[in-house]
Amino acid sequence: MKCLVYVETHEGKAQGGSLELLTAAAGLGEVKAVVLGSREAAEQTAAYGVDVLLAGEACCPDAATALLEHIIGEEKPQVVLMNATLAAKDLAPRLAHRLGGGCVTDAVAVEADEAHGVVFTRPAYGGTVLERLALTSAAPAFATVRSGSFAKPEQTGNGAVTEVDVAVAEDAIRARLVETVTEITEMVNLEGADIVVCGGRGMGDAQGFKLVEELADVLGGVVGATRPAIEEGWISRAHQIGQSGKMVAPKLYIACGVFGAMQHISGAMASKYIVAINKDEAASIFDVADVGIVGDVHEILPLMIEEIRKRKA
Amino acid sequence: MNIFVCVKQVPDDYVEVHLNPTTGTPDVEGIDQVNNAFDTYAVEMAVRAVEAHGGSVTVAAIGPEKCQNGLKNLIAVGANKAVLLSDPALLDLDEAATASALASLIAKCEADQGESFDLIFCGKESTDEISAQVGAMLSETLKAPFVSSVVEVEPVEGGVKAKQETESGYAVYEMALPAVLTVAKPAYDPRYPTIKSKMAARKATIPMLTAADAGAVKQDNRVTCLGYSEPAKRQAGVRIQEKEAADAVAKAVAMMAEAKAI
Ligand SMILES: Cc1cc2nc3c(=O)[nH]c(=O)nc-3n(C[C@H](O)[C@H](O)[C@H](O)COP(=O)(O)OP(=O)(O)OC[C@H]3O[C@@H](n4cnc5c(N)ncnc54)[C@H](O)[C@@H]3O)c2cc1C
Ligand SMILES: Nc1ncnc2c1ncn2[C@@H]1O[C@H](COP(=O)(O)O)[C@@H](O)[C@H]1O
User: Fold this and answer.
1) Is A142 left (phi over 0), alpha (psi -120 to 50) or beta?
2) What value does the mean pLDDT take over residues A33-62?
3) Is the pLDDT reported for residue B198 higher than 90?
4) Residues of A numbered 94-133 whose beta carbons fall under 8 angstroms of chain B's beta carbons: which are they?
5) Which of A136, A227, A291 has the CB atom closest to B224's CB atom?
6) Domain that holds residue A268
């Protein structure tokens, strides 16, 4: 099976979630990668032993769609894999439509299958149900795959980087990008964190939320947040966990003043050990917590920070 | 501005969905159907745009007859018109087939009202399938500009300007009309109906079209579901409820240490 991996770049570098897909693709058959606009990223990708097609830089999503449409049209792979970033989640369905293929969002497993060629597993209904999907059209199957679903591949020598010369027609640009603003500069590595301390609306205010940051700090963990905590402006969107945020799978997840709504906890269900602090003993979070403390975060957290500091000393 | 908002009815996403042990399919029978949350954000954004700049908001769904209730609820919060495409031939559509049927429905509504839509809104994603595909595919069918995860939209010379939420901040796009936008959670919440608007909406009749009425032909699905499973379940563990917070913390930390979580 011919498989094409779209390697997205971030500041000119190959993005880690995309490189994991080389592992997924290797399980399916013959692998090629495509990179837009960065020779550095193309060479970085080729170091994993795959041949890379390098096309020009895309000025905007419409241009990226046009470039990839052309390349995929020429290459005729059976499967196209992309990391499930917001940008790729726009590209995949648009390309699937243009090339007549089906599209799968947020796959967590991709397997070769005798009867169906390839079968994708993906969560639905907030993550309580997994679907097994097969593609039924002859055109390429497009899938976006969640970060962390596959291990990073081994660097096994150099593949070739081939430049492809594709021009984007002027009328391909329908939505003109006029401004890009970076508000969130911090690197928040929630997906890779071993410990996540998450604060919800129960933290009360920005000052209260600082306790979450302090506990994360003494544990060497990363701060997570629920949507209300973000909407209140206590912390940036980069920290959101859940359906509209990040999926985490730490060894320890501590939920502070978090109710445990499906849309939130679905993003943390893969945690090894869940500790919850909530003053309401009926809060849903207690249904999934290994240890649940019924109490006020403003009393519990300072003591917990103290206790852990002592242990670490 | 005439805005067409695509609204999907989904099982209330505050209820956890599990597999029916007999059928092995998601057990959604007893769960109330509601308007997809992101679609309600899209309706609120559309109603605000029309309040500010004039025009009308049409809400539309493809689904069974009972979707009428959901559409009525949207009339109660400011939508001007509603239409339901309901046909046994249009069940179990995949995203591409849904986009194709929506495109037919849009053309039909435009022909009937003798006026085209300036903007077509979808939700960023549906809360049951969570595919985030229909809006993108619809824009391709209509060959219209597309921007996803929009949190603000305003008219500019020759079209609209849309603010898109991105992972690291935001991006602003300008485009000619008609355009297809998918809507994320804006800075505001959808409004609540008043008793009066609710009463009035209850009396509204929602036109129901068949596939033939709308000129919609079912496109073959490109994606098939082979089966379902459930991820490993979590068990509730120990509940600690002590008079003294210090005792609770000591207990909890000891357990975390024992489990080698810290
Ligand atoms: C389409 C959609 C997508 C969504 N996506 C996400 C998402 O990605 N992530 C997300 O988080 N949410 C998401 N939500 C929102 C989600 O449904 C919940 O509303 C949200 O997770 C609740 O956040 P919370 O637990 O912080 O707040 P609340 O539900 O208000 O809960 C606060 C909790 O804190 C407790 N508490 C209050 N004071 C104290 C105290 N002093 N000490 C201890 N406990 C206290 C309360 O008992 C309560 O249980 C989404 C919703 C929709 C509709
Ligand atoms: N059956 C439907 N009727 C009307 N709109 C729909 C339907 N299915 C999907 N949509 C629209 O497409 C959006 C994205 O859906 P999805 O691609 O399934 O995540 C939804 O938020 C709706 O706006």
Assistant:
1) beta
2) 97
3) yes
4) 94, 96-98, 100-106, 116, 119, 121, 123-133
5) A136
6) 195-312
Instruction: For residue A102, tell me if it sits in a domain.
Output: yes
How far is it, in rounded angstroms, from Cα B31 to Cα B14?
A: 10
Does residue A138 sit at the B interface (CB-CB below 8 Å)? Answer: no
**Contact between chains at B255 and A291 (C-beta distance less than 8 A):** yes
A157 and A230, same domain (yes or no): no
Residue A178 resides in a domain: no
In angstroms, rounded to a whole number, what is the distance separating the alpha carbons of residues A252 and A256? 13
pLDDT digits (tens, 9 = 90+) for B85-96: 999 999 999 999
Q: Has residue A189 been placed in a domain?
A: no
- Ligand that comes closest to the CA of residue B13: 1
Strand B119-123 and strand B179-183: pairing? Answer: parallel
Q: Domain ranges for chain B, please list them.
A: 2-214, 234-262
Q: Is residue A187 part of a domain?
A: no
Assign residue A267 the CATH number of its domain. Answer: 3.40.50.1220
Residues A164 and A199 in one domain: no
Helix (H, G, I), strand (E, B) or coil at A126: helix
The three-point CA angle B150-B207-B214 to 5° equals: 75
Token code pair at residue A220: 């060497």
* The amino acid at A252: L
The reported pTM is: 0.93
Whether residues A36 and A118 share a domain: the answer is: yes
Q: A137 and A284: one domain?
A: no
Homologous superfamily of the B2-214 domain (CATH): HUPs (3.40.50.620)
Q: What pLDDT does A214 receive?
A: 98
Which residues lie with the beta carbon below 6 Å from any ligand 2 atom?
A: B 6-8, 36, 38-39, 61-63, 95, 98, 122-123, 125-126, 129-135
Clarify whether residues A221 and A158 are in a common domain. Answer: no
A177–B173 C-beta distance less than 8 A: yes
Give the pLDDT confidence of A11-29 residue by residue, as tens digits.
Answer: 999 998 999 999 999 999 9
Nearest one of B144, B152, B150, B141 to B180, comparing CA atoms: B144
Contacts of A62 (CB under 8 A, 6+ apart): A172, A173, A174, A175, B145
Domain end point (choices A106, A141, A172) = A172
Residues A138 and A209 in one domain: no
Residues in chain B: 262
Ligand 1 pocket mutation pick from B36, B182, B185 by most atoms within 8 angstroms of CB: B185
